[in-house]
Amino acid sequence: xxxxxxxxxxxxxxxxxxxxxxxxxxxxxxxxxxxxxxxxxxxxxxxxxxxxxxxxxxxxxxxxxxxxxxxxxxxxxxxxxxxxxxxxxxxxxxxxxxxxxxxxxxxxxxxxxxxxxxxxxxxxxxxxxxxxxxxxxxxxxxxxxxxxxxxxxxxxxxxxxxxxxxxxxxxxxxxxxxxxxxxxxxxxxxxxxxxxxxxxxxxxxxxxxxxxxxxxxxxxxxxxxxxxxxxxxxxxxxxxxxxxxxxxxxxxxxxxxxxxxxxxxxxxxxxxxxxxxxxxxxxxxxxxxxxxxx
Length: 294
Description:
Blueprint: H1 6-10, H2 17-24, H3 30-41, H4 43-48, H5 51-58, H6 62-71, H7 77-88, H8 104-125, H9 128-140, E1 144-147, H10 153-165, E2 170-173, H11 176-183, E3 191-195, H12 202-213, E4 217-222, H13 228-232, E5 236-238, H14 247-272, H15 274-289
Parallel strand pairs: 1-2, 1-3, 3-4, 4-5
Helix pairs in contact: 3-5, 3-6, 5-6, 8-14, 9-14, 10-14, 11-12
Protein backbone atom coordinates (compact mmCIF):
# COMPACT_ATOMS: atom_id res chain seq x y z
CA UNK A 1 0.00 0.00 0.00
CA UNK A 2 1.43 3.37 -1.06
CA UNK A 3 1.66 5.98 1.68
CA UNK A 4 2.49 9.09 -0.35
CA UNK A 5 0.64 12.17 0.87
CA UNK A 6 -0.25 14.75 -1.79
CA UNK A 7 0.16 17.49 0.79
CA UNK A 8 3.82 16.61 1.17
CA UNK A 9 4.35 17.42 -2.49
CA UNK A 10 2.01 20.38 -2.78
CA UNK A 11 4.29 22.56 -0.64
CA UNK A 12 6.59 22.88 -3.66
CA UNK A 13 3.89 24.74 -5.55
CA UNK A 14 2.76 24.01 -9.09
CA UNK A 15 5.69 25.35 -11.04
CA UNK A 16 8.14 23.20 -12.97
CA UNK A 17 5.69 20.33 -13.39
CA UNK A 18 7.95 18.18 -15.56
CA UNK A 19 10.98 19.05 -13.43
CA UNK A 20 9.25 17.89 -10.26
CA UNK A 21 7.94 14.80 -12.00
CA UNK A 22 11.45 13.70 -12.94
CA UNK A 23 12.54 14.09 -9.34
CA UNK A 24 9.55 12.13 -8.01
CA UNK A 25 9.78 9.39 -10.62
CA UNK A 26 11.98 6.93 -8.65
CA UNK A 27 9.46 6.89 -5.78
CA UNK A 28 6.37 6.24 -7.89
CA UNK A 29 4.69 2.84 -7.83
CA UNK A 30 4.39 0.82 -11.05
CA UNK A 31 0.97 2.08 -12.15
CA UNK A 32 1.80 5.72 -11.44
CA UNK A 33 5.13 5.32 -13.20
CA UNK A 34 3.27 4.22 -16.34
CA UNK A 35 1.38 7.50 -16.31
CA UNK A 36 4.63 9.41 -15.75
CA UNK A 37 6.21 7.61 -18.71
CA UNK A 38 3.41 8.79 -20.99
CA UNK A 39 3.60 12.38 -19.74
CA UNK A 40 7.38 12.61 -19.96
CA UNK A 41 7.46 10.98 -23.37
CA UNK A 42 4.62 13.03 -24.91
CA UNK A 43 3.86 16.11 -22.78
CA UNK A 44 2.24 17.90 -25.72
CA UNK A 45 -0.20 15.04 -26.21
CA UNK A 46 -1.19 15.13 -22.54
CA UNK A 47 -2.20 18.78 -22.83
CA UNK A 48 -4.94 18.01 -25.38
CA UNK A 49 -5.89 14.51 -24.26
CA UNK A 50 -8.73 13.61 -21.93
CA UNK A 51 -8.20 11.71 -18.71
CA UNK A 52 -9.61 8.64 -20.49
CA UNK A 53 -7.07 8.93 -23.31
CA UNK A 54 -4.11 9.33 -20.93
CA UNK A 55 -5.34 6.34 -18.92
CA UNK A 56 -5.62 4.27 -22.10
CA UNK A 57 -2.16 5.31 -23.32
CA UNK A 58 -0.67 4.30 -19.97
CA UNK A 59 -2.81 1.15 -19.68
CA UNK A 60 -4.08 2.18 -16.24
CA UNK A 61 -7.40 3.25 -14.76
CA UNK A 62 -8.73 6.80 -14.77
CA UNK A 63 -8.51 6.77 -10.98
CA UNK A 64 -4.77 6.15 -11.26
CA UNK A 65 -4.37 9.19 -13.52
CA UNK A 66 -6.30 11.32 -11.04
CA UNK A 67 -4.14 10.05 -8.18
CA UNK A 68 -1.06 10.87 -10.25
CA UNK A 69 -2.26 14.49 -10.57
CA UNK A 70 -2.95 14.79 -6.85
CA UNK A 71 0.51 13.45 -5.99
CA UNK A 72 1.98 16.23 -8.11
CA UNK A 73 -0.01 18.70 -6.02
CA UNK A 74 -2.96 19.38 -8.34
CA UNK A 75 -6.65 19.20 -7.45
CA UNK A 76 -7.45 17.30 -10.62
CA UNK A 77 -6.52 16.46 -14.19
CA UNK A 78 -7.67 19.81 -15.58
CA UNK A 79 -5.43 21.79 -13.23
CA UNK A 80 -2.55 19.53 -14.16
CA UNK A 81 -3.14 20.14 -17.88
CA UNK A 82 -3.28 23.92 -17.41
CA UNK A 83 0.03 23.95 -15.54
CA UNK A 84 1.61 21.68 -18.14
CA UNK A 85 0.33 23.87 -20.99
CA UNK A 86 1.84 26.97 -19.39
CA UNK A 87 5.14 25.20 -19.05
CA UNK A 88 5.09 24.09 -22.69
CA UNK A 89 4.37 27.57 -24.11
CA UNK A 90 8.12 28.10 -24.38
CA UNK A 91 9.60 24.78 -25.49
CA UNK A 92 12.46 23.83 -23.22
CA UNK A 93 15.83 23.16 -24.80
CA UNK A 94 17.08 21.73 -21.55
CA UNK A 95 17.33 18.03 -20.79
CA UNK A 96 18.52 17.04 -24.24
CA UNK A 97 19.87 13.54 -24.22
CA UNK A 98 23.55 13.36 -25.12
CA UNK A 99 24.07 10.34 -27.33
CA UNK A 100 27.74 10.79 -28.03
CA UNK A 101 30.49 13.35 -27.96
CA UNK A 102 33.29 13.41 -30.46
CA UNK A 103 35.72 16.08 -29.30
CA UNK A 104 36.96 17.87 -26.21
CA UNK A 105 34.95 21.01 -26.91
CA UNK A 106 31.72 18.99 -27.05
CA UNK A 107 32.50 17.37 -23.71
CA UNK A 108 33.15 20.76 -22.09
CA UNK A 109 29.88 22.15 -23.51
CA UNK A 110 27.99 19.10 -22.25
CA UNK A 111 29.28 19.57 -18.70
CA UNK A 112 28.41 23.27 -18.62
CA UNK A 113 25.00 22.76 -20.23
CA UNK A 114 24.11 19.93 -17.86
CA UNK A 115 25.11 21.92 -14.78
CA UNK A 116 23.41 25.06 -16.05
CA UNK A 117 20.15 23.25 -16.78
CA UNK A 118 20.14 21.55 -13.39
CA UNK A 119 20.74 24.86 -11.60
CA UNK A 120 17.99 26.62 -13.54
CA UNK A 121 15.54 23.83 -12.80
CA UNK A 122 16.47 23.81 -9.12
CA UNK A 123 15.90 27.56 -8.86
CA UNK A 124 12.51 27.14 -10.51
CA UNK A 125 11.18 24.70 -7.91
CA UNK A 126 13.05 25.90 -4.81
CA UNK A 127 10.71 27.24 -2.13
CA UNK A 128 12.00 30.45 -0.59
CA UNK A 129 9.86 29.87 2.51
CA UNK A 130 11.63 26.56 3.11
CA UNK A 131 15.01 28.22 2.60
CA UNK A 132 14.18 30.95 5.12
CA UNK A 133 12.98 28.39 7.65
CA UNK A 134 16.21 26.43 7.25
CA UNK A 135 18.23 29.61 7.79
CA UNK A 136 16.42 30.36 11.05
CA UNK A 137 16.87 26.83 12.34
CA UNK A 138 20.58 26.82 11.55
CA UNK A 139 21.15 30.23 13.11
CA UNK A 140 19.37 29.32 16.34
CA UNK A 141 20.70 25.78 16.74
CA UNK A 142 22.84 24.87 19.73
CA UNK A 143 24.80 22.65 17.37
CA UNK A 144 24.44 21.52 13.77
CA UNK A 145 25.10 17.95 12.70
CA UNK A 146 25.83 17.71 8.95
CA UNK A 147 25.53 14.19 7.52
CA UNK A 148 25.90 12.50 4.16
CA UNK A 149 27.56 9.45 2.63
CA UNK A 150 29.03 8.49 -0.73
CA UNK A 151 28.65 11.19 -3.35
CA UNK A 152 27.30 13.64 -0.77
CA UNK A 153 30.55 13.52 1.19
CA UNK A 154 32.12 16.55 -0.54
CA UNK A 155 28.99 18.62 0.17
CA UNK A 156 29.15 17.62 3.85
CA UNK A 157 32.75 18.79 4.19
CA UNK A 158 31.99 22.01 2.34
CA UNK A 159 28.95 22.71 4.53
CA UNK A 160 30.72 22.10 7.82
CA UNK A 161 33.62 24.36 6.91
CA UNK A 162 31.36 27.20 5.83
CA UNK A 163 29.18 26.96 8.92
CA UNK A 164 32.26 27.14 11.12
CA UNK A 165 33.41 30.24 9.24
CA UNK A 166 30.05 31.79 10.08
CA UNK A 167 30.69 31.14 13.76
CA UNK A 168 28.16 28.32 14.06
CA UNK A 169 28.90 25.15 16.00
CA UNK A 170 28.89 22.44 13.32
CA UNK A 171 30.06 18.83 13.15
CA UNK A 172 30.51 16.81 9.97
CA UNK A 173 29.86 13.08 9.67
CA UNK A 174 30.21 10.71 6.75
CA UNK A 175 30.83 7.57 8.83
CA UNK A 176 27.66 5.68 9.77
CA UNK A 177 28.66 4.62 13.28
CA UNK A 178 29.87 8.09 14.20
CA UNK A 179 26.58 9.48 12.91
CA UNK A 180 24.58 7.15 15.12
CA UNK A 181 26.58 7.98 18.22
CA UNK A 182 26.39 11.70 17.59
CA UNK A 183 22.65 11.56 16.87
CA UNK A 184 22.00 9.78 20.16
CA UNK A 185 23.39 12.83 21.99
CA UNK A 186 21.26 15.45 20.26
CA UNK A 187 18.63 17.58 21.97
CA UNK A 188 15.61 19.58 20.84
CA UNK A 189 17.94 22.58 20.51
CA UNK A 190 19.98 20.86 17.81
CA UNK A 191 19.58 20.56 14.04
CA UNK A 192 20.56 17.83 11.61
CA UNK A 193 21.31 18.87 8.02
CA UNK A 194 21.07 15.70 5.92
CA UNK A 195 22.34 15.75 2.33
CA UNK A 196 21.20 12.85 0.14
CA UNK A 197 20.49 13.01 -3.58
CA UNK A 198 18.11 10.05 -3.66
CA UNK A 199 16.84 10.44 -0.11
CA UNK A 200 16.72 6.67 0.41
CA UNK A 201 20.13 5.93 1.93
CA UNK A 202 19.72 3.64 4.95
CA UNK A 203 22.51 5.26 6.99
CA UNK A 204 21.00 8.72 6.60
CA UNK A 205 17.46 7.55 7.32
CA UNK A 206 18.45 5.70 10.50
CA UNK A 207 20.48 8.66 11.75
CA UNK A 208 17.65 11.09 11.01
CA UNK A 209 15.24 8.76 12.81
CA UNK A 210 17.35 8.79 15.96
CA UNK A 211 17.63 12.58 15.76
CA UNK A 212 13.84 12.88 15.61
CA UNK A 213 13.51 10.59 18.62
CA UNK A 214 15.77 13.03 20.44
CA UNK A 215 13.42 15.82 19.30
CA UNK A 216 16.05 17.48 17.11
CA UNK A 217 14.95 19.13 13.86
CA UNK A 218 15.97 17.58 10.54
CA UNK A 219 16.57 19.61 7.39
CA UNK A 220 17.31 17.74 4.19
CA UNK A 221 18.60 18.54 0.73
CA UNK A 222 17.45 15.90 -1.75
CA UNK A 223 16.41 15.44 -5.35
CA UNK A 224 13.25 13.49 -4.51
CA UNK A 225 10.43 15.11 -2.53
CA UNK A 226 8.67 11.76 -2.16
CA UNK A 227 11.72 9.99 -0.75
CA UNK A 228 11.58 8.66 2.83
CA UNK A 229 14.08 11.30 3.96
CA UNK A 230 11.94 14.12 2.57
CA UNK A 231 8.87 12.80 4.39
CA UNK A 232 10.51 12.95 7.80
CA UNK A 233 12.35 16.26 7.27
CA UNK A 234 11.05 19.77 7.75
CA UNK A 235 11.98 21.84 5.88
CA UNK A 236 12.95 19.97 2.73
CA UNK A 237 15.06 21.67 0.05
CA UNK A 238 14.66 20.06 -3.35
CA UNK A 239 17.27 19.92 -6.12
CA UNK A 240 16.36 19.16 -9.71
CA UNK A 241 19.18 17.19 -11.28
CA UNK A 242 17.91 14.41 -13.51
CA UNK A 243 18.51 10.69 -13.22
CA UNK A 244 22.13 10.11 -14.04
CA UNK A 245 22.10 8.89 -17.63
CA UNK A 246 25.51 10.43 -18.33
CA UNK A 247 28.45 10.92 -15.94
CA UNK A 248 28.13 14.73 -16.06
CA UNK A 249 24.73 14.53 -14.36
CA UNK A 250 26.27 12.96 -11.26
CA UNK A 251 28.30 16.15 -10.93
CA UNK A 252 25.21 18.28 -11.62
CA UNK A 253 23.51 16.96 -8.48
CA UNK A 254 26.49 18.10 -6.39
CA UNK A 255 26.48 21.50 -8.09
CA UNK A 256 22.80 21.94 -7.16
CA UNK A 257 23.44 20.92 -3.55
CA UNK A 258 26.34 23.36 -3.23
CA UNK A 259 24.26 26.17 -4.75
CA UNK A 260 21.45 25.69 -2.23
CA UNK A 261 24.02 25.59 0.56
CA UNK A 262 25.65 28.79 -0.71
CA UNK A 263 22.23 30.47 -0.66
CA UNK A 264 21.79 29.40 2.97
CA UNK A 265 25.24 30.69 3.90
CA UNK A 266 24.63 34.03 2.18
CA UNK A 267 21.34 34.55 4.04
CA UNK A 268 22.90 33.58 7.36
CA UNK A 269 25.79 36.01 6.80
CA UNK A 270 23.34 38.75 5.86
CA UNK A 271 21.31 38.15 9.02
CA UNK A 272 24.43 38.18 11.18
CA UNK A 273 25.66 41.47 9.72
CA UNK A 274 28.79 42.75 11.41
CA UNK A 275 28.89 39.68 13.66
CA UNK A 276 29.78 37.54 10.65
CA UNK A 277 32.66 39.82 9.67
CA UNK A 278 33.98 39.88 13.23
CA UNK A 279 33.91 36.07 13.35
CA UNK A 280 35.89 35.81 10.11
CA UNK A 281 38.42 38.39 11.32
CA UNK A 282 38.90 36.45 14.55
CA UNK A 283 39.51 33.21 12.69
CA UNK A 284 41.98 34.85 10.32
CA UNK A 285 43.97 36.25 13.26
CA UNK A 286 44.02 32.83 14.93
CA UNK A 287 45.26 31.14 11.75
CA UNK A 288 47.94 33.77 11.26
CA UNK A 289 49.06 33.24 14.83
CA UNK A 290 49.62 29.51 14.32
CA UNK A 291 51.20 30.00 10.90
CA UNK A 292 48.34 28.66 8.76
CA UNK A 293 47.97 32.08 7.07
CA UNK A 294 50.46 34.84 6.39
